[in-house]
Amino acid sequence: MGSNTIKVLCVDDSALIRDLLSEIINEQPDMEVVAVAPDPLVARDLIKRHNPDVLTLDVEMPRMDGLDFLERLMRLRPMPVLMVSSLTQAGSEVTLRALELGAVDFVAKPSLGIRSGMMEYANDIAEKIRAAAKSRPRQARRKDAPAPARLKAPLASSEKLIIIGASTGGTEAIRAVLEPLPANSPAILITQHMPGGFTRSFAERLDRLCRITVKEASDGERVLPGHAYIAPGDSHLKLARSGANYVARLDDGPPVNRHRPSVDVLFHSAATQAGRNAIGVLLTGMGKDGAAGLLEMRQAGSPTLAQDEASCVVFGMPREAIALGGAVEVIGLDAIPERLMSLVAASGRAQRV
């Protein structure tokens, strides 16, 4: 094993999943499974013995729940964790909780044809492990931590829009951006890389936490202030116009940058349909999706923000956008909500002059 080889520990109560993950990982030239465990209690000793770079962790396991184990692990020995989740409503809710507790990302177990399904996603699993190995492990916000300061809404035209793209680490980054916003914020459109079946739970969770209304986008619905619209996990989300109104459009066209939904698709539509009325925000994520689209938005007159490296779980997408010249500002995650409101206020003043 070379010094740069990513050491992976797989924790899953299914011997089949342990074997399949080991097969997928060990076929990669830059990673290796150093041990497997059927439950978290066995895993605890193996972590001490092997000091893995990445842990893959099943959500539902005997002897100790995967979430309980993850919460303890991230408190006592923070490390990159990739969750292995079932594609069910309950599975999606538990997975979102795992991301909240500090897991970097997740892969979904296929419900049928487990071997063929896992092998179909072999490259995706390997990419997520590589991203996890480079990520910044972070602890969950403590239950007794103060809630984020709630911002006041600036006077703004209902034409103003906020357009957000994210991938790895994005579920918590999006929450950090939306939670402080006032109920009458400009309309927000969001593309987060996430499979179908997870985005509805994600939207419902955010809706419970935020003063704005958060929902999964529907094709043709009017885009309204005080609402955030999340791209469904199997459709591109686009901004379109219908008469004087903005509307959301869903598109099941081919993946862009290997993703559907794609951030570039959303950003391109905002650049062409809204121009300087939109504000572009590119958050944490692996790869380059959104970089070219953020540049298009900037060229169309939009203020554009990229999350800074220090606050990203994975700096890939913002780094690519900055390198292309797509970001007007590079900014820490905690400062983004207030900066958005100040940009909206500035545009409102400019329109009234």
Automatic annotation (TrEMBL):
Domain text: Contains a C-terminal catalytic domain, and an N-terminal region which modulates catalytic activity.
Pfam families: CheB_methylest, Response_reg
The keyword Magnesium is assigned to this record: no
UniProt entry tagged with the keyword NADP: no
Protein's cellular compartments: Cytoplasm
Region (Disordered): 132-151
Name used for this protein in its record: Protein-glutamate methylesterase/protein-glutamine glutaminase
CDD domains assigned to the protein according to its UniProt record, in alphabetical order: CheB_Rec, REC_CheB-like
Family named by the database record: Belongs to the CheB family.
Record's catalysed reaction(s): L-glutaminyl-[protein] + H2O = L-glutamyl-[protein] + NH4(+); [protein]-L-glutamate 5-O-methyl ester + H2O = L-glutamyl-[protein] + methanol + H(+)
Biased composition (Basic residues): 132-141
Modification note: Phosphorylated by CheA. Phosphorylation of the N-terminal regulatory domain activates the methylesterase activity.
InterPro entries: CheB-like, CheB_C, CheY-like_superfamily, Sig_transdc_resp-reg_Me-estase, Sig_transdc_resp-reg_receiver
UniProt EC number: 3.1.1.61, 3.5.1.44
Residues of the active site: S167, H193, D289
Keywords, sorted A to Z: Chemotaxis, Cytoplasm, Hydrolase, Phosphoprotein
Modified residues (4-aspartylphosphate): D58
